[in-house]
């Protein structure tokens, strides 16, 4: 199997969420994730910080509008496009404001809109604690269908699986670059986004983000902890629309190793303490 998305070195560049009150949501991200906020219209607000971007659009709370995965070069974009067409995946126009001409979008089996493109270079001058946009994790009734789409059809590499005792998949982690996961999926009783994550890089930055949240009187809803798959440190907070935000650090870098299967167990999800199991 050709790992087309992995070969393109695609990475999560930005996410866009629907909200009944996009201004409130954008202002929250501006303050909480240290981003500048720009009003585009009454129905769209954009937030941008150092290597992180968030878009809030008018709509239904807790719904992903789209996610943008940037590729290393236009050849990578074109190769994923050709792969999608060969797999008979419907091609849609990309709504992303952060990609150059030549971008496109596809919908996964749950209807999530995923854009691929070449990023417009970010302007200079953004400041804040280190934390680029890094991964997006979905909740789905059908993790196997998720794996079939991202791994078998788009060419994401499969990093790890979490399995129930009966062999059914509880979680799937896929990557499109050397970081352990770019897009993942939990089996759940609902469809949508489980969380999106920012990569702080170092434990000290987890501390700095936590202190920043404390200054804003925002309590951590989960963590600090360490995941099994990915081996990353983490903290979680919740935005006003109840979307989960993760700040992660020390995520595993994979160059060449086989897929690892993990048991569905609290210690798989959090080696240090309390786990929030989805299935």
Structure at a glance:
Residues 11-119, 132-250 form the VOC domain. It holds the Pfam family Glyoxalase. This protein is an alpha/beta fold and 279 residues long.
Explain what this protein looks like in three dimensions.
With 279 residues, the protein is α/β, with parallel strands linked by helices. It is built from six helices and 16 strands. The strands form two sheets. The protein has a nine-stranded mixed sheet with strand order 13-14-15-12-8-11-10-9-16. Strands 2-3-4-1-5-7-6 form a seven-stranded mixed sheet. β10 and β11 form a beta hairpin. The two termini are 30 Å apart. The mean pLDDT is 97.
Keywords:
single chain, 279 residues, alpha/beta, 2,3-Dihydroxybiphenyl 1,2-Dioxygenase, domain 1, 2 domains, nine-stranded mixed sheet, seven-stranded mixed sheet, 6 helices, 16 strands, 20% helix, globular, VOC domain-containing protein
Helix and strand topology:
Blueprint: H1 4-7, E1 11-19, H2 22-32, E2 36-41, E3 44-49, E4 52-58, E5 63-70, H3 74-86, E6 104-107, E7 113-117, E8 133-140, H4 143-153, E9 157-163, E10 169-175, E11 183-187, E12 192-201, H5 203-215, E13 222-226, E14 233-238, E15 244-249, E16 260-263, H6 266-269
Parallel strand pairs: 1-4, 5-7, 8-11, 9-16, 12-15
Antiparallel strand pairs: 1-5, 2-3, 3-4, 6-7, 8-12, 9-10, 10-11, 13-14, 14-15
């Amino acid at each position: 199997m050709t790992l087309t998305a992995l070969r393109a070195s695609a990475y999560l560049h930005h996410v866009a969420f629907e909200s009944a009150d996009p201004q409130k949501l954008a202002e929250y991200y501006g303050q909480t994730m240290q981003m500048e906020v720009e009003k585009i219209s009454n129905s769209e607000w954009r937030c941008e910080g150092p290597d992180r971007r968030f878009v809030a659009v008018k709509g239904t709370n807790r719904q992903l509008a789209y996610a943008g995965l940037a590729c290393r070069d236009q050849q990578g974009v074109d190769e994923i496009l050709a792969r999608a067409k060969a797999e008979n995946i419907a091609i849609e126009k990309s709504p992303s404001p952060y990609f150059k001409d030549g971008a496109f979008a596809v919908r996964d089996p749950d209807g999530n809109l995923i854009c691929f493109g070449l990023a417009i270079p970010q302007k200079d001058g953004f400041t804040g604690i280190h934390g680029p946009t890094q991964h997006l994790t979905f909740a789905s009734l059908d993790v196997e269908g998720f794996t079939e789409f991202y791994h078998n059809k788009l060419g994401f590499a499969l990093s790890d699986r979490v399995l129930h005792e009966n062999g059914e998949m509880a979680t799937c982690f896929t990557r499109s670059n050397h970081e352990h996961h770019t897009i993942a999926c939990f089996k759940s009783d609902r469809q949508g986004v489980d969380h999106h994550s920012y990569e702080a890089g170092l434990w000290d930055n987890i501390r700095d983000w936590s202190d920043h949240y404390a200054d804003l009187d925002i309590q951590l809803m989960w963590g600090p902890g360490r995941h099994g798959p990915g081996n990353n440190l983490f903290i979680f907070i919740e935005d006003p629309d109840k979307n989960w935000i993760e700040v992660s650090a020390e995520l595993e870098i994979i160059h060449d190793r086989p897929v690892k299967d993990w048991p569905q167990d609290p210690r798989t999800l959090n080696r240090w303490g309390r786990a929030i199991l989805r299935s």
